[in-house]
Every structure is written in structure tokens, then in C-alpha cells.
Amino acid sequence: MKFLLVIAILALWIQATESTTCFVQNSIPSVFTQVCPGNIYTCMKFDCRVNNPKKFKQTTKGCNDPGNPQVACTQLMTQCQAQGGTGQCYTCNGDYCNSTPTTFAALLSIAIPAISFFLLH
């Protein structure tokens, strides 16, 4: 049983080292995750806050690929400022790191007991 668990963990680790997968939130409908190109190892999240009478916040997520205008922080910043807004770009390393804190906490609540069980038995 432990052997199978070790094999599963190693398989996930090997898969994670080959490419990075990020959450996606942009104009592409029904796409929620994206495997980044081989040379991209970081994810991004860009928030644009526009303080016009409607006061809205627009969030874009994806692979941190400077060559892709949909997720290039400099391009998104220019678009945000053109709407009269202020933008902030966040980048991170690792699979699904551009998720919400709630999702991250949910993953930790599953991972910590599983790892503890494996280490104690």
C-alpha cells in the first residue's frame, strides 16, 4: 500500500517538473486550466481596478508568458490604464499557484492529513 502511494507521489512530482499548469481566467470560454509552454514556469494573476462611476474589478489569470498579449503583464497594464484603472500583476511558481486562497486552503486541508498519515504509518 505504501509502495503504491510512493509511486503515485513520484509520478505527480515528475509530471510537475515537466511543465507548469496554471488556472485560467480570461476571455476564453470554458477553459479553466492551462499547461504552460515548455519555457514558461510561472503563473500570473492580473487585477485591474477601474474607479469610474461603475467601479469594477477585472481579473486575468494564466501562464506568465510575456509573448502572449492575453497574459502579458505589460500589455494588460496598458489596457487597464487606457480604461482609467490601476493594475497589479502577481506572479508565482508552481502548479495552480494563481488560485484563490480558499482553493489553496482546501488543498492543504486534504494534503496535510494524507502526508501525516503516510509519515506516521
From TrEMBL:
Keywords: Signal
Signal peptide (UniProt feature, chain positions): 1-19
Annotated protein name in UniProt: UPAR/Ly6 domain-containing protein
